[in-house]
């Protein structure tokens, strides 16, 4: 029960008390003042082998009636006893009496710690579907004072409900219980839920129990091709991979907007092509079922020409790079030739520019006809400025 303590006392038999009183009267002048200094002992862990209790006395003592209690030292001023095989019943107050005038008494309290048992986790027997709730109960018995319980998910501490403490019948110990409620996700699958005991009688982490979680969830899908550059005429396969709990066992293959190719065969999680062809290009879908739910994924298949080295993933990119380089070189040559032609033509036109003279015939208005006007104009315009026209 809470606060229960076994009380033991040190007393003298009646015949010894009379003798001691007589001795006290005879030695009163010598024993003028005797003081006791009796200290409380630190807490003792249950099952520790020996506990020492110090008694200061000027006379003698009477041993406690228990075979586990032995006298270790007895002098005129000091008495020492030991308690072996310490039990919870040894917890309590111890008294030492000094028979002076007046009688003096000193007391000490011995605290025995009850070591808690290893915690037990209950409440999780079957796997739980994703999104469901699970309630775990952790119990530890035999602690004194009451132990404290802590919950962990892997290495992270999580909060459960406050501890419930109950006293054990007919024992000065306690049973401590704690509950933890979780809403599980697929990330909680295989996570370790730990209940650890915290108590002054043990080191942290000495007593703990782990419980792995099992969460059921629908598969998440992926498709793994045999090669990143499938080549025409080769054998080839697509593998459908489903990550779920439980693992999926039923697979369905489809080709979007078309039937599966004649040379494509479904082999469980595999779609196998006996000989790839350009006509096999398309979008392929895999669907998997694990009894909890279904998952699906698609993959686009692009078959390369037979001349492309599928073993060399850089072949396509290298060939494409060469084509672009050739085209760039041709364009550069054409541009260079056009520039050269323009330069040559410009220089030619500049060097062969023409000069033309036009004359205004004076007096041509008086000429009877055109021929006469031209004749009249000849030699009559030597002073006229030349009119030049340049053509480029």
UniProtKB/TrEMBL annotation:
Pfam families: C2-set_2, Ig_3. GO terms for cellular component: presynaptic membrane. It is a single-pass type I membrane protein. Residues 119-214, 219-304 form the Ig-like domain. GO terms for biological process: homophilic cell adhesion via plasma membrane adhesion molecules. It is found in: Membrane. Keywords: Disulfide bond, Immunoglobulin domain, Membrane, Repeat, Signal, Transmembrane, Transmembrane helix. Residues 361-380 are annotated as: Disordered. SUPFAM superfamilies: Immunoglobulin. InterPro entries: CD80_C2-set, Ig-like_dom, Ig-like_dom_sf, Ig-like_fold, Ig_sub, Ig_sub2, Neurexin-like. The keyword Disulfide bond applies. It comes from the Eukaryota. CDD domains: IgI_2_Necl-1-4. Its main location: membrane. The chain crosses the membrane at residues 46-64, 325-350. Belongs to the nectin family. This is Cell adhesion molecule 3-like.
């Amino acid at each position: 029960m809470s606060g229960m303590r076994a009380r033991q006392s040190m007393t003298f038999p009646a015949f010894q008390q009379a003798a001691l009183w007589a001795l006290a009267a005879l030695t009163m002048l010598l024993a003028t003042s005797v003081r006791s200094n009796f200290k409380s002992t630190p807490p003792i862990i249950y099952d520790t082998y020996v506990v020492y209790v110090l008694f200061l006395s000027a006379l003698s003592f009477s041993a406690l009636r228990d075979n586990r209690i032995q006298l270790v030292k007895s002098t005129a001023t000091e008495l020492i006893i030991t308690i072996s095989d310490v039990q919870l019943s040894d917890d309590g107050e111890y008294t030492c009496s000094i028979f002076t005038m007046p009688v003096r008494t000193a007391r000490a309290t011995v605290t025995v710690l009850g070591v808690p048992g290893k915690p037990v986790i209950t409440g999780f027997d079957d796997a739980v579907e994703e999104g469901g709730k699970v309630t775990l109960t952790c119990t530890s018995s035999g602690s004194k004072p009451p132990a404290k319980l802590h919950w962990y998910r892997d290495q992270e501490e999580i909060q459960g409900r406050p501890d419930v403490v109950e006293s054990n019948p007919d024992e000065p110990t306690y049973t401590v219980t704690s509950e933890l409620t979780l809403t599980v996700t697929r990330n909680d699958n295989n996570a370790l839920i730990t209940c650890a005991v915290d108590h002054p009688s043990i080191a942290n982490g000495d007593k703990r129990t782990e419980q792995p979680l099992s969460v059921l969830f629908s598969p998440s899908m992926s498709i793994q091709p045999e090669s990143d550059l499938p080549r025409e005429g080769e054998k080839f396969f697509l593998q459908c991979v489903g990550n779920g709990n439980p693992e999926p066992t039923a697979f369905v293959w489809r080709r979007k907007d078309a039937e599966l190719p004649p040379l494509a065969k479904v082999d469980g999680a595999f779609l196998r092509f006996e000989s790839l062809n350009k006509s096999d290009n398309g979008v392929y879908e895999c669907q998997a079922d694990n009894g909890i739910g279904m998952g699906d994924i698609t993959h686009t298949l692009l078959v390369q020409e037979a001349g492309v080295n599928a073993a060399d993933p850089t072949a396509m990119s290298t060939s494409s790079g060469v084509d672009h380089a050739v085209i760039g070189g041709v364009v550069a040559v054409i541009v260079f030739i056009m520039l050269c032609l323009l330069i040559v033509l410009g220089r030619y036109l500049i060097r062969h520019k023409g000069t033309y003279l036009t004359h205004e015939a004076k007096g041509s208005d008086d000429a009877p006809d055109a021929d006469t006007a031209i004749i009249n104009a000849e030699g009559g315009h030597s002073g006229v400025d030349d009119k030049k026209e340049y053509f480029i």
